[in-house]
Amino acid sequence: MKFPTIYNVQLVALIATLGGMLFGFDISSMSAIVVTDQYIEFFDNPSGAIQGAIGSALAAGSVVGSAVAGPLSDKIGRRDSIMFACIFWLIGTAVQVSCQNTGQLIAGRVLNGFTVGITSSQVPVYLAEIAKAEKRGSLVIIQQLAIEFGILIMYFIGYGCASIEGTASFRTAWGTQFIPCFFLIIGLPFLPRSPRWLAKVGRDQEAIQTLADIQAGGNIDDPLVVAEWEEIVTVMRAEREAGKGWRKFFLNGMWKRTLAGMSVQAWQQLAGANVIVYYLTYIAQMAGLTGDVAMVTSGIQYAVFIIFTGVMWLFIDKTGRRTLLVWGALGMGFCHFVVGGVMGAHHIDVPGGVGDPPNHNVVIAVHSGAPANTVITFSYLLIVVYALTLAPVCWIYAAEVWSLGTRATGMSLAALSNWVFNFALGMFTPPAFVNITWKLFIIFGVLCVAAAAWFWVLCPETCGKTLEEIEVMFSNDGPYPWKTKKGGSRLEAEIEAVKARKTQGEPEVLPVEKV
């Protein structure tokens, strides 16, 4: 049975990014639950390393998923690799819903994480490969918005289910994770395959037609289609001469792209925003907020996240990637320093844990009034800066820097880097709340400053460039990163050249047999 194919890229993106919603659902499937009496009583008040293991289980599975995503995507395609991942989400969710102990909960989150590892790396690749250069950022950012909507929806589902007696509270909440996966499975067969993947595996005629259907209403003679196809062909020829295997990630300047793609994802984690995203409920308790007030205060941050990422959606392709990375890291660092400084100067130690029953992960209480309000305010502000900068841009940048021959596996390496550090920080953060308390935020502030310096020195501007033009940006003869500017794509000149050839009666489409 052949399904009708959707070629409207915005609609394609909305369906594909349901994979991001899975990510968001799993992130906040714990946020609203970990402070409930039902969770604390059933799992025997997990704290420190045990709570760290539960929280980081998603990242552990994602490390494995990211590692296999690239070869899998190159073999069966971007779209079908996402479909494959959905199977593990269904199994993992079933394991969580039926869990009887901490070990089973961790196992279910690992399986869900395997799915997230594949979708978080391959959905951006898929979107980057079907988008026009001048719209690529706004298309890939839909993935980030989907993640954030998933976080918000799941958080308030968990908050609502907290009023249910017994284990049904968290089982019901976790069971709703089936819903976005169901709609993703239904929608995927209607999506086109990536034209660049089709070209990579030798299905040239289908690649040209798909490119035309996406970019020009099916007209294979459109100058944009011809120019873009010729760029794809030129790059493919160069890549075939560049060697096979893992050498292609390091030879002829590729090490710069490998370093940029992997490091930008690592810094997204090391910037420390996920400490707020995952554990604002703990910070709220430190600031003296309890019960429904603490839960709603934590939930509002997710709405703030969506609002400001939505604002950036309007401007992402008008603002340089470098600009957002550098200033975003500095802004986040400032917020970390304020939160850590205020906590350090205005707190009392509560060794037994704050709250009733006590939360053993929260062992300091910030003085009420201005100090507590400042901590909450700058926690929100940190999320605002993150939503405008590193949250969307790190995924966009990592999807842009790779060549056609390395993009799927390269993005897998980038996502692997993200998830390795996510796992490490997930294990580190709950014990850090207990052992070094406010100093945790000072550490992240220093890391943010280091990230800004790294972006300035090593990350050239990719905004407004075709994926093929980015080849030049990272070549041995390319410009220094700090001398690069957004826009200035050569594709417009190539389109004009195609139009000129058409006027002169020359062939309009590069013969497929030469590819």
Automatic annotation (TrEMBL):
Keywords of the record: Glycoprotein, Membrane, Transmembrane, Transmembrane helix, Transport
GO cellular component: membrane
PROSITE patterns with a match to the protein in the record: MFS, SUGAR_TRANSPORT_1, SUGAR_TRANSPORT_2
A Pfam family hit: Sugar_tr
Family: Belongs to the major facilitator superfamily. Sugar transporter (TC 2.A.1.1) family.
PANTHER family according to UniProt: MAJOR FACILITATOR SUPERFAMILY (MFS) PROFILE DOMAIN-CONTAINING PROTEIN, PLASTIDIC GLUCOSE TRANSPORTER 4
Name this protein carries in UniProt: General substrate transporter
